[in-house]
Amino acid sequence: MTKSSQQRSFLLTIFLIGFSLLLWCYLFRLYLNASAPLQGDAYPYLGHIRFYVENIMRGVYPLWDPLENHGNVNEFFLRRIGEYNPFFLIIVLLNKSGIPFLIAYRLFLVSYFFLGVAGFYLLSQKIFFDHLTSFSAALLFLFSSVGASIFETYLLLEIVPFIWFFYFFVSFVQAPNKVFLLGSIFSLMLINITYIPFYFYTILSVFLICFSIVYASQMATIYQRIQDFISHYKIFTRVCTVLLAVSFIPGILWYQQTSQGEVLTMERHAQSQDTNSATVSVDKVNEGGIIPNFIFNRQFVNPDKIGLHDIYIPLFAFLMLFAGAWGRLNRRLIVFFIFGYTIFLIGLADASYIHRFLYRYVLFFKYFRNVQFFIQFAILPVLILFVVEQMRIFIEDCKQSLINRKWMTVWVTTIHAAAAGFFLFNNAGYITYMVIILNLGWMLGCIWSIGNSRVWILLLWGAIVLQPFDVYSHIAVNNPPSYQWGYDKRYVFNLPTVQEAGKLMDMKKISKGDIHQKDLPYFGTRWLYEAIDSVDSTILGNHLNTPFVLYDRVEQVTDKVNHARLQNSLAHFENLAFVYSDTMRGAGGPVDPKARIITSVDKDFKILKFDANDVIVKIAVTHPSFLVRAQNYHSQWKVFIDGKPAPLLRTNICSQGLWVPAGEHVIHWHFGTPLRYFWVYFLEFLYLFVLGWLIWLWFHFRLSTQKLSI
Amino acid sequence: MAMVSFPAVYTKIVDLIFRRVIFLFLVGVVLSFLFIDQSALKMKTLNTMLPSASDLKEFIYHPSQMNQEKIKDMLTYYKFVCDFMGSDTYEKPAACGIVGYAYYYLGNDKKAIDYLSQSNKLYDHFFWTYYNLEVIYFNEGNYEQSMNYFVLAKEAYPYTVGFFSATRSYVHIAECLKLNQDDFSRGVDQGAERIKKLYIFSSLLIDHPALKEQFVLKKFDLRLF
To answer: How many whole angstroms separate alpha carbon A312 and alpha carbon A301?
Structure first.
């Protein structure tokens, strides 16, 4: 092939990728313009990201989420989203430019996914050094279920840094350079701040082991190459090491938080033998896992019914997988195979002996479940790399006449005929047969050198894109809303009216709800779980939805308190708060039998300011009173009366209470320690800085390579 | 034809098999047997497909009004149980019986009879498979065959209640529908009364075909317990 012909082929692949991106946007247009609702985990993640981004836009770093089950540390959700990810700025910028948040968020999801597709293209380039192979890899990745799942799961937040890490890492191993090292480190920094970086470290460990085994003879050279780089760029390498170490801080802080036992994820942690509340019991892990029979179930039987949660990869991949089965075997394919297969075994959970071993002996395996996510994280991408390598070998062998044309024609035709027979048996639509014909067309053209490479590229593009075009045309119809739009709740103090307060006080009957059958929140404070377990849900709800209540008397109790008595007192809003610390018992003399609910018309109470981490009120009381705030107690909440620290006490099992002296006072509740705030702002800045540095190094690198090529 | 020397044959075999991608696929199959706990995988697969309590309730109490797609889901699940479980287990005949039941409500009497007969072959002491066969044949107008199953059902009657608690499928149904041994026992008694009537109807219809219209207008329902 001449150079100009090669260039034209390259330009055609670039044009087709661009066109495919537009096609993808068209297919998912209902999700892009927010007409179709998000599904599954994507929905709560929208909530977490929205809460974080909107607070940041208001200048508040939300360490506490007052909306989450009557208040909880936000660290858990920040770890889930990896809040220092500078790409969240896309949402801020789009929103500031007038695009509604919900659409801005979806545009962020799509642009972040396309960033992942670009990374996958570049990674393929680094592995195969062939435009057509990278083109096919990028298309398969774009139209696989990884793309569709961005509207159903949160896996995108992890997959994109995974891909870019491998791109930078492979580039660095091939030709060590500052930009590749920093790129790898930055990707790792993004991965480390997510709640569960363990998926990645499992994938990386397996990859390194497989690679080292298959390429054992080259390990010494690679090691020497990296060693030379390190000794040449000592300071730069040390800076990178420090950056990597710093990125572990949020995870360590979260680990400490969960070790203290103040917050729990009951659903995950129940039955776990470990004392740390972030651990997951083996039964919970085993509830998940890959079910081989179902991975591609819908793909082959009912492709038009594929939903966002279904695993999908264009039919082309399977045709190539089997048609290429008679192709040459090389070390690359062996690495892909062992790597993908090992991850598959780990993903089977208790159905594989490997996972059982790892859960028992590798500490971090106790901290994550949903091992079926390995399909999207590693198995699908590796399968794509595997089939495009088969394709590359096939084309290369055809070009170099290394194949027996007649035999290969028989083999390829048989495989396609068998596929057609299979789909005929399963009543597949006509699109499937068109894909089979197109695929057979370009393969036969390649075998017999009929047509030119641009014709093959067009046929190949059709063979990859045609089925997804059909499948994703139905995607919005196949996904009826599973949630109602509801995360538009805003943090507001709804002080009750006098009538509402009166109704609460007059509640005569205590409903006999079966407290053990209540729905436990997914994530809550330890004391909230205890309150739910001990107190009738209506009574507890009445208290937790009443922002402020004033008492005259308190009773010091222990955790062994008679809950029936406490419940009875709470039911009638008796003028008695139950505290779990030594404190003054209350003013002497006659007192009102009922507590005082602060209402919207109370003139001696005013909310001066509130945000996620702070609440400031002004209050005037005639005698020392005990003020209870309906937010969950946590040891990191501090309270100040007229600027002076005052003791904050756990009250009525899970709420916050304090003594207010007689007179007018300003009370300020504040969450978080100064050190914690230092870290969050420092890390926010650091991540932005490293991204900026990386972009600068990247352009510098591109510029220098262009100069060299000139 | 020239003789091919041993090393040449060897090289050719190595080239044909070990240097081809297909070799990896074969390795994958072998490794699956070594590293995958097949019985745990079966259980995992079945647990993932477990039908919900509300669907089961509809499937059992109002199968003729149930959405056909949902019946297909039930069919898929119990077919999996049927395929996965060994012939020496109680699970297989129980599941085959339920598959037959599902096929009947999907309008496929032939497959329903096949699966119910398969269930009988595996365990011939379960009242409800005979009951269902009797009902299907009666609904089809094959009264002689229907009457034959009455005799077999009577013989199976005393062994039936114990069978429920020995099968995971029925234990799951009992858990979802909050049933106990007494409910199963009562169901079998009622079933016995019903098929006795069917037996009498069948004999009447054989002797007096003119009465057919009276009974055949109404189709009788299958039951699982």
So the answer is: 12
